[in-house]
Amino acid sequence: MNSLLINLRPSVYDAMSISQEELGYLTDCNSLEDFLSPNENLAYKKLTSLVRQRTWFMGRLVLKKLVNKVVYGSKKKLNEIEIFNKACGQPYVKEALYVSITHKSDLAMAAVSASNEIGIDYENMKPVSGLMQRYYMTEEEIRSSLRVHGDKGLIISWTIKEAAFKAIDDGLKRSLSDLQIKFVDTESSHVFSTNGDRIATVFSSCDEDSVFSCAILGL
Ligand SMILES: CC(C)(COP(=O)(O)OP(=O)(O)OC[C@H]1O[C@@H](n2cnc3c(N)ncnc32)[C@H](O)[C@@H]1OP(=O)(O)O)[C@@H](O)C(=O)NCCC(=O)NCCS
């Protein structure tokens, strides 16, 4: 998955991933308090499921490592970098960076940008039923995604829209039909609002098992 991130990293953003194995290694050698601030420790303990605790923790850990690398040259203690969430769930940090997190049970990814709001989404490669396709795409989006990406176009489009929703402040209040995808090439697409304004450029990458998209607002 790291190779996917490296392939499509433009200068405007930086991204990092962490796997469950890396997490195991880190937590074998350290305690939770080494990674989490006192507030984060409390929030972690309130999470009821073990899976949720793991994904929440992995998302925070990888974002903290990335902020530490970009802002502090990896010299700061991770428990001194705090990740907050707005009421809508969007993460933010006190450092001057826009940030985004995505996770599955075995992997978490984070991205930061100093200049533009961003959103990322990671999904396992999977077929998308006809009913589901029409839930989040127009007929034109379905046709063009298949033309540009073949069968993978449907799940790639899912990550493009999810990433764009995450990048937009209070984006989840918008309806799915508010965002329309126009594919530029196999690595990039533009997302437009219904009034024709370009909202974001989205960079996407995939391998046999997974898809990753990063939406950059205002690009
Ligand atoms: C909230 C939502 C964006 C999360 O996406 P997901 O694929 O389920 O989960 P991911 O692992 O990719 O992302 C989870 C992280 O997104 C972040 N997030 C949550 N709400 C967010 C928001 N409103 N804006 C930006 N980021 C948000 C959080 O950091 C969260 O991790 P955390 O709770 O551990 O901190 C998604 O469930 C959703 O509601 N999407 C609405 C749009 C839609 O209907 N999409 C479907 C078809 S395109």
At CATH level 2, the architecture of the largest domain is Alpha-Beta Complex
User: Overall pLDDT, averaged?
Assistant: 92
The CATH class of the largest domain is Alpha Beta
Helix/strand-derived category reads alpha+beta
Uncertain residue ranges: none
CATH superfamily of the largest domain: 4'-phosphopantetheinyl transferase domain
How many domains comprise the coordinates?
A: 2
Describe the secondary structure blueprint for this structure.
Blueprint: H1 2-7, E1 14-19, H2 20-29, H3 38-46, H4 50-72, E2 84-85, E3 91-92, E4 98-104, E5 107-113, E6 118-124, H5 130-136, H6 139-149, H7 153-167, E7 179-183, E8 188-193, E9 198-206, E10 210-217
Antiparallel strand pairs: 1-5, 2-3, 4-5, 6-10, 7-8, 8-9, 9-10
Helix pairs in contact: 6-7
Question: Mind explaining what this structure looks like?
Answer:
The chain has helices at residues 2-7, 20-29, 38-46, 50-72, 130-136, 139-149, 153-167, and strands spanning 14-19, 84-85, 91-92, 98-104, 107-113, 118-124, 179-183, 188-193, 198-206, 210-217. Helix content is 37%, strand content 27%. A five-stranded antiparallel sheet has the order 6-10-9-8-7. Strands 1-5-4 form a three-stranded antiparallel sheet. It starts with a helix and ends with a strand. The longest helix is centred in the N-terminal third of the chain and has 23 residues, at 50-72. It is α+β, with helices and mostly antiparallel strands and 219 residues long. It contains seven helices and ten strands. The protein folds into two domains: 2-115, Alpha-Beta Complex (Ribosomal Protein L22, Chain A); 121-217, 4'-phosphopantetheinyl transferase domain (Ribosomal Protein L22, Chain A, Alpha-Beta Complex), CATH 3.90.470. The site of coenzyme A (COA) has 22 residues, from helix 4, strand 4, strand 6 and helix 7.
